[in-house]
Amino acid sequence: MQKYVTLGNDEESYAFDGSRKVRCHNEKDGKSDSYGVYWAVGDVIGCLLDADAKKISFYRNGKDL
After folding, report:
1. Which residues on adjacent β-strands are paired with residue 17?
2. Average pLDDT of the residues in 3-21
3. 24's torsion region: left (phi>0), alpha (psi -120 to 50) or beta?
4. Radius of gyration of the CA atoms of the chain, in A
C-alpha cells in the first residue's frame, strides 16, 4: 500500500495551508507550525524563495504572512 503524501509532508517540499493556518515542511509526525491567516475565496497566495538567505516566505494578497 502506498502512503499518501501531501505538499509539505516530506523533506523536499514546503507549503502554506490557509484552510488550517499552518506552514508545513517534513511533517512526518503530523505536527506543523501555526502560521499566517486563514485564506478566503478570491485570495491570491504567493511564495517567495530567497536562495541567498535560504528563506521561503508566503504572501496573501501581497502581504507577507
Report:
1. 22
2. 79
3. beta
4. 13
Phi, psi of 49 (to 5 degrees): -110, 115
Band (pLDDT 50/70/90 cuts) for residue 28 is low
Query: For 46-49, which contacts have Cβ atoms below 8 Å and span 24 or more sequence positions?
Result: 47/16
Q: How many CB atoms lie within 10 A of CB 55?
A: 9
User: Nearest 5°: phi and psi at 13?
Assistant: -140, 155
Quote the pTM value: 0.74
Question: DSSP 3-state assignment of 7?
Answer: coil
